[in-house]
Amino acid sequence: MFRPRVIPVLLLKNQGLVKSVKFKKFRYIGDPINAVKVFNDLRVDELVFLDISANRENRSIPLDFISRVGDEANMPFSVGGGIRSIKEIQQIISAGAEKVILNTSAAENPLFVKQASDEFGSSTIAVSIDVKKNIFGKEFTYIYSGKNITKYEPVSFVKLMEEMGAGEIIINSIEHDGMMQGYNISLIRRVSEAVRIPVVALGGAGNNNDLRNAVKEGIASAVAAGSLFVYHGPRRAVLINYPENGVLDLLFK
Amino acid sequence: MHQKTVIVNYGMGNLNSVYRIVNDIKGDAVVSSNPEDILGATKIILPGVGHFGKAVANLEKLNIWDTLNVAVLEKKIPILGICLGMQLMVSHSEEGDAKGFNWFDANIVKFKVRDHLQFKVPQMGWNNLIIENESPLFNGIPGDALYFFIHSYHIKCNNKEDILAKTEYDYFFTSAIHKNNIFGTQFHPEKSHDSGKKLLCNFLNL
User: Fold this and answer.
1) Which residue of A has its CA nearest to B113?
2) pLDDT category, B138, cuts 50, 70, 90?
3) Residue B123, domain CATH
4) What is the pTM of this model?
5) What's the confidence (pLDDT) of residue B15?
6) Would you state the pLDDT for residue A73?
7) A12, A147, A153, B2: most buried, per Cβ within 10 A?
8) Among A78, A113, A115, A117, which residue's Cα sits nearest to residue A95?
9) Mean pLDDT, rounded, for B63-85
10) Which residues in chain A are contacts of B122 at CB distance < 8 A?
């Protein structure tokens, strides 16, 4: 039976691992390669790395970092952050990543998603979408790590991305990020119902039951989380953790 | 020449993880598109991610299409195809309407799921196998082991005896095949933790 993936999302800033709350208040978590080793031992399904300072620094996620992750990881991993060219994707895949994640470049130039999926196949190209309400309470897609609003309302944007050949959507709610009080189930469900490609829920998971809800209520194909897998306890002590496989099998039954 | 496990490089996807695991198990992996290496291999692994039609074109362009036919059909070198590498072993694929190696009487078709909400395409995630025909490939692996899948197309075999295992995603499709010295898996053993590594180990020790 198909078992939805459970994916730790790791944020990189200045080569270190950080965790945010609502895309702000970054807290240093530790060394990313060390985290990969621990997640390897914990037999995680997949890992996502997002370099959140890449775009602003006008570069993409460093290749030597991807190679080092590739040397350690016995599971699929995908990377995002500042990716804007076919050549960069080529280099990232060669360095060992399974998939690339596009965000700002996908909204600024949707045809880039088409070029990329034509070149590398849909299953290599994921698009992550950061959603927030504007001052009138209407949801929009944001880019540049949540700093700039776009003209796209999330459901129409995921449809456009599917049309352009994206193989997967990661849907993140900026207001839920780091809160650990549950996903934005309504948003996830609307997005999931709008497309026929896999949708990964992100933003807000605080416990295993939240993961289950995203799949059962939100119809997510996979669930991702940051805080849940790097923090432990009410005081949020840094401790890399992940549910055991038997637990996950039961969770989604 | 010292004999090696050859991982065929034909410009389709990342070979790093296969290389690393094979080297871990056997210590003799080489990534190559050189016909001499392929014909002298003890074992061949044909990986691959991407478009079927493009893969066929690349294999022809690199002049390794005929080489692989000789290595597999005449020299009977054991070969394992992974994902797209397995799909290439059939007669025909819907993806790019292209011809494959024709080592199996089978074709590649797009997932035809009925429930588009629960079963998104590509299938991306972990799934188990239901063994149809026993094989040394599965020696020592728990029956409920999960493997990593990422694909929009799957194989349809015309000969039941070629089917090693099936997997359910809205419906049952063939997820592992075998005939003589030729093996193929739709899933990625190199990305499937301990069970996948054991499967690769079983193949390399055949």
Assistant:
1) A196
2) very high
3) 3.40.50.880
4) 0.94
5) 85
6) 86
7) A12
8) A78
9) 97
10) 122-123, 167-168, 197-198
Number of structural domains, chain B? 1
- Out of B49, B124, B152, closest to residue A221 by CB: B124
- Chain Cα centroid distance, residue A149: 19
CA distance A178 to B206: 49
- The answer on pLDDT for B34 being more than 90 is yes
- Tell me the nearest-neighbour CA distance from B39 into chain A, angstroms: 25
Residues with Cβ within 8 Å of B104's Cβ and at least 6 positions away in sequence, in order, are B89, B90, B91, B155, B157, B159, B162, B177, B179, B182, B184
**Active-site hit among B95, B154, B157, B190:** B190
C-alpha–C-alpha distance, residues A161 and A194, integer Å:
11
Cross-chain residue pair A98–B123, CB shorter than 8 Å? no
- Residue B50's pLDDT is 83
pLDDT of res. A51:
96
Contact B90, B46 (CB under 8 A): no
- Residue B57's SS3 state is helix
Residues in chain A predicted with pLDDT less than 70, given as ranges, are: none
- Helix extents (H) in A51-132: 63-72, 86-94, 104-108, 110-120
Q: Is B49 on the interface with A (CB under 8 A)?
A: yes
Does position B23 have pLDDT exceeding 60, yes or no? yes
Smallest Cα–Cα separation from A51: which of A4, A122, A102, A7? A102
Q: Which amino acid is at A196?
A: R
Contact between A168 and B194 using a beta-carbon 8 Å cutoff:
no
Q: Is 90 exceeded by the pLDDT of residue B174?
A: yes
Query: Is A130 tagged catalytic?
Result: yes
Containing domain of residue B114, as a range? 5-204
Distance of alpha carbon A132 from alpha carbon A130, whole angstroms: 7
Q: Structural domains in chain A?
A: 5-251 (3.20.20.70)
Q: Quick one: pLDDT at residue B3? A: 77
Residues near A28 by beta carbon (within 8 Å), at least 6 away in sequence: A16, A17, A18
Q: Is B83 a catalytic residue?
A: yes
pLDDT band per the 50, 70, 90 thresholds, residue B2: low
CA nearest A5 in B: which residue? B125
Complex ipTM: 0.91
Does the annotation mark B190 as catalytic? Answer: yes
Q: Which amino acid is at B196?
A: G
Are the Cβ atoms of A219 and B117 closer than 8 angstroms?
Answer: yes
